[in-house]
Amino acid sequence: MKNRFSELKDLVMSLEDDFSKFYEKGNQAAGTRVRKGMQDMKNLAQDIRIQVQDIKNKA
What we know:
- The chain is mainly α.
- It has one domain.
- The protein contains three helices and no strands.
- It is elongated.
- 0% of the residues are buried.
- The model has no long low-confidence stretch (mean pLDDT 94).
């Protein structure tokens, strides 16, 4: 579980430059990377949520 959380943190940090490039400089390709990264984060967060719920229900 801790590994999944680290994966989520790393993903957030990896998007920082693309956020800046998109919002500050209007770089459209960076916006595409941000959208893809946000979708990946959503999927990873959902996986973590399901795993937490499974562990909680077994207790």
